[in-house]
Amino acid sequence: MGQPRPLSGGIQAGASLNALHPFSASPAADRVHLRLMETSDLHVHVFPYDYYSDRPIDSAGLARTAALIATLRAEAANTLLFDNGDFLQGNPMGDYIAHERGLRPGEMHPMIAAMNAVGYDAATLGNHDFNYGLDFLLTALDGARFPVVSANLLPGPLAPPGLAALPRYTLLDRTVRDGAGQPHPLRIGVIGFLPPPIAIWDRRHLHGRAEGGDIVAAARALVPRMRADGADLVVALAHSGIGEPDHVDRQENACLPLAGIEGIDAILSGHQHMTLPGPDFAGIPGVDAEAGTICGKPAVMPGFWGSHLGVVDLLLERGTAGWRVAEHRSAVHPIAHRKPGRGVVPLVSSNPEVITAAAPAHAETLAYTRRAVGRTEVPLHSYFSLVTNDASVKIVADAQRWYLAEMLKGTRHEGLPLLSAAAPFKAGGHGGPDYYTDVPVGDIAIRNVADLYLYPNTVRAVRVTGARLRGWLERSAALFNRIEPGQPDQILLNPEAPCYNFDVICGVEYRIDLSRPPRFGPGGRLLDPTAGRISGLSWQGQPVTDDMEFVVATNSFRASGGGGFPGTGVDTVAFEAPDANRDVLLRYIAEHGTVAPRADATWRFEDLPGTTVLFDTSPAALDHLDELRDLALEPAENGPDGFLRLRIAL
Description:
Blueprint: E1 5-6, E2 31-39, E3 49-50, E4 55-56, H1 62-74, E5 78-83, H2 92-101, H3 110-118, E6 122-124, H4 134-141, E7 148-149, E8 153-155, E9 169-177, E10 183-193, H5 198-201, H6 203-206, E11 210-212, H7 215-228, E12 233-238, H8 255-259, E13 266-269, E14 275-276, E15 287-288, E16 293-294, E17 297-302, E18 308-319, E19 322-334, E20 336-339, E21 343-346, H9 352-369, E22 372-376, E23 380-381, H10 391-407, E24 418-422, E25 438-439, E26 442-445, H11 446-452, E27 458-465, H12 466-476, E28 490-491, E29 504-506, E30 509-512, E31 534-539, E32 542-543, E33 549-555, H13 556-559, E34 573-580, H14 581-592, E35 594-595, E36 603-605, E37 612-617, E38 632-638, E39 644-649
Parallel strand pairs: 1-9, 2-5, 5-6, 6-7, 10-12, 12-13, 13-17, 22-35, 24-33, 28-37, 30-36
Antiparallel strand pairs: 2-18, 3-4, 8-11, 9-10, 14-17, 15-16, 16-17, 18-19, 20-21, 22-26, 23-25, 24-29, 27-33, 27-34, 30-31, 31-32, 37-39, 38-39
Helix pairs in contact: 2-9, 3-9, 10-14
């Protein structure tokens, strides 16, 4: 391991810590204040810039988070900085580097260059870091000046050279100073975990090459080994959120059972794009959302895109049995906040070293995303995509259907009814009131295509029965709360249900009865197999029966089982296309030249006379109210966190 090196920190030996620690008593001799800092789900957001809207923003960017890191480093004698994964994919810069320019061996990825400039001590991998393939991932990681660990990433028989060389954990030897300024060697064990379903979500890249093992099983096997190797402290970088309280095999969000593993001292989590401490996890047994603990252990989750810096302060006390955590505090520090009527107000400025590290790639990305590929005669926005038929969703569905109609010619699936499933990817939620697609009438640039389809999925076709088709739609309907008929102003959307799981299936017609209980929960868990919200399901004017067969165009994530939709999974895949959904959309627009997608009457809410619901959207939606023809709505009040609240009469 070599000689211990000093930890990053701004306090010189012998300096007073009295004003700089968060504990009930000042650190003294043999008591050490150690500050752990975490970013997660950066998704290539280096610059405070929205490439989709082509404008600077104040609510994202590692360059801004780096300013917080510098401040908090300067306030503590001993600090460590970690990243929790999902840093290589997620915005047009990531796509440009991976698909347009490429990344040659020895060349520094701009995200890695930025992370090197900040000075990370270690990182782990998230599921989206595999979206561009293992070879790209390994080439990018070659430039990292910090260890990247993944305990439950399991190489397969076709794994590329270098995958097995990724450590499952690392031991960081550091010199820390106690409250009296005396140095002590400290060995910090860092272990990382990724969501086990990666082999399903990225099957085209990972089949036979790698898969995700169970998080809790990996921790049980490796944490005792880390302790035996001399780890005084074990930090878990869990690219996994807070889900079921009990251990489930290959659990996606496993932080609750993970916290029960003896020997883990702190959990730095992510993946869910939420914050802990904070109200996002209030009321969950085993979680103290105010204090930031999971099963009594310090934990943190720092939002996404660099929106927050997660901080866990530990007071370590040395006794005869070694170091132990005597006290702990968790916090999340935002880079901006929203003031009523003033929008987002920045709290920090960009770090110039981080800006410099990625400046060439930023300029190239802007030039790339500004290229025009076609025109639209109608606005393509997602302000109402969760309450009515929407042109921004329809154009994606049209492109998928157009592509697969040709690809399925001559196959045994030709002649079956061809449907197309698409969902809004940007429709507010945890992304905030500015997180919407908005492509105005006129030229469609590459950045607009990326705005319409965010992810690097590939096109898939699945073959389903009428019964499974109905179940697919029931799963989508988990987006909505149950509504009491005849009651006013009930909240429409379930905040736990992400918009990208609201699939609209074009080619059939149906209604959603909000007065009925949902069949599925927001995460896909089956609640009641007899429950049904979907009514009037028909194809070409005829009722859909359980034994009818359809082909549904969708994406690789959904077709492989992502989201837990009936009718999906590898056993139903009828066709695996080599092309990405976004590329198909781009070709569709370029070939047609000018597009004017019609938001057909695919679905609507069942009438509930005397009933109103409240729906939150962007204030920018006010400019588009005149486009609605089949929905009775009016502004109700200012919504929470800068949203516009609309009242809808059902």
